[in-house]
UniProtKB/TrEMBL annotation:
It catalyses: (2R,3S)-3-isopropylmalate + NAD(+) = 4-methyl-2-oxopentanoate + CO2 + NADH. It is an enzyme of class 1 (oxidoreductase). Catalyzes the oxidation of 3-carboxy-2-hydroxy-4-methylpentanoate (3-isopropylmalate) to 3-carboxy-4-methyl-2-oxopentanoate. The product decarboxylates to 4-methyl-2 oxopentanoate. This is 3-isopropylmalate dehydrogenase. Its cofactor is Mn(2+); Mg(2+). Pathway: Amino-acid biosynthesis; L-leucine biosynthesis; L-leucine from 3-methyl-2-oxobutanoate: step 3/4. One of its GO terms (molecular function) is 3-isopropylmalate dehydrogenase activity. Keywords: Amino-acid biosynthesis, Branched-chain amino acid biosynthesis, Cytoplasm, Leucine biosynthesis, Magnesium, Manganese, Metal-binding, NAD, Oxidoreductase. It is found in: Cytoplasm. It comes from the Bacteria.
Length: 361
């Protein structure tokens, strides 16, 4: 197949992990005879430096034309002055909004080989398999913001339609899994959460009678996620709660560097990025974990290109690499592998273990 893929490396470790992801994408393309045309564009701080705009028009136009977009990370201390007029993060938020990517899927499946590296007891982690569906284009991130002398405000707003579509997405996903959805809100305090709960209850009851829905308040959910992670299947929640809970959930897997994500809307095109940021504390040292970015390629292949076998091949190669005990610094006890070493190991497994049906005989 032919696919136009936009690559947005961004800032900090973004370009480092994106280079790994692109190498994997190219290897899959060669192995399975797909033509992936990659187009690299600027976003975030790199784009501010180049042209003063964190989402240049050229970048957005390329994304609108693409079959899928692969992103590294944006942001960093260079652009983080509290008084800054323009910020790298605005570019990413504007891109999600412009592409209508309202559902952000963040799967968490701790790998048996890294259970010992996570700060949670291994017996709580084995068998954990959950997906957070984070609402991505609404809520407090996108409400009016004001700064007036000694006070500031950020408005949190949700419409019925915005809640319906993301809850539907979560319920559809649950149907392919264990048919259980946990909706997370703060309905004991927030009006937006009371709307969220009301809509989630109606959508699940009327449209998904085969799916069970439970509600949790976000504060105790932060605890349940660590104390009984195995009991969750699909978790659906609003934008900011989802942001926070998924960084917490990364500790079930053992590292922020392991988790991928897919941001989806009503079209097939999606934006794929690891959940971590630009990690300024380790940028430029060649030690960033590329697995979250590489697994984002698997999600891209599956969700935007419909290439389930190829996606499975990438996931298998990552799993085999971890089975080999090849860990980056934040996970390793002994030898720590760098970004390139991990990528090379994944590529070797793709070459050795991924079989192309028509080439087999
Ligand atoms: P971060 O995710 O960049 O880093 C948090 C911690 O996790 C750091 O200690 C970092 O070294 C570690 N880490 C993250 N990714 C790693 C990887 N692949 N391998 C090994 N260790 C990894 O979060 P932060 O420090 O709070 O934010 C830094 C910047 O990144 C900020 O400007 C923030 O806005 C931005 N950010 C961007 C995105 C994105 O582009 N999607 C996501 C989150 C944060
Ligand atoms: C993420 C990041 C972003 C978010 C920032 C960089 C805007 O933290 O993708 O998780 O909060 O959505
Ligand atoms: Mn985040």
């Amino acid at each position: 197949m032919h696919a136009e893929i936009v690559v947005l490396p961004g800032d900090g470790i973004g370009p480092e992990v994106t280079a790994a992801a692109v190498a994997v994408l190219r290897a899959v393309g060669q192995r399975y005879r797909h033509h992936f045309n990659l187009h690299e564009h600027a976003i975030g701080g790199a784009a501010i430096d180049a042209c003063g705009d964190p989402l240049p028009e050229k970048t957005l136009a390329a994304c609108h034309y693409a079959d899928a977009v692969l992103l590294g990370a944006v942001g960093g201390p260079k652009w983080s002055d509290p008084g800054a007029k323009v910020r790298p993060e605005q570019g990413l938020l504007a891109l999600r909004k412009a592409m209508g990517l309202y559902a952000n899927l963040r799967p968490v499946q701790p790998h048996p080989a890294t259970l010992g590296a996570a700060p949670i007891k291994p017996h709580l982690l084995s068998g954990v398999d959950l997906v957070v569906v984070r609402e991505l284009t609404g809520g407090i991130y996108f409400g009016d913001k004001t700064r007036d002398g000694g006070s500031a405000s950020d408005v949190c707003r949700y419409s019925v339609g915005e809640v319906e579509r993301v809850v539907r997405r979560a319920c559809e996903l649950a149907r392919e899994r264990r048919r259980h959805v946990t909706s997370v809100d703060k309905a004991n305090v927030l009006e937006t959460s009371r709307l969220w709960r009301e809509v989630a209850t109606r959508v699940a009851r009327d449209e998904f009678p085969d799916v069970t829905l439970e509600h949790q308040l976000v504060d105790s959910m932060a605890m349940h996620l660590l104390s009984r992670p195995r009991s969750f299947d699909v978790i659906v929640t609003e934008n900011m709660f989802g942001d926070i809970l998924t960084d917490e959930a990364s500790m079930l897997a053992g590292s922020m560097g392991l988790l991928p994500s897919a941001s989806l809307g009503d079209e097939r095109v999606g934006l794929y990025e690891p959940i971590h940021g630009s990690a300024p504390d380790i940028a430029g040292r060649g030690i960033a974990n590329p697995i979250g970015a590489i697994l984002s390629v698997a999600m891209l292949l599956r969700h935007s290109l419909g290439l389930a076998m190829e996606a499975g091949c990438v996931e298998q190669a990552v799993s085999a690499t971890l089975d080999d005990g090849i860990f980056s610094a934040e996970l390793a006890h002994g030898h720590a592998a760098g970004t390139r070493e991990i990528t090379a190991a994944v590529l070797e497994h793709i070459a050795a273990d991924c079989h192309v049906a028509e080439l087999r005989d």
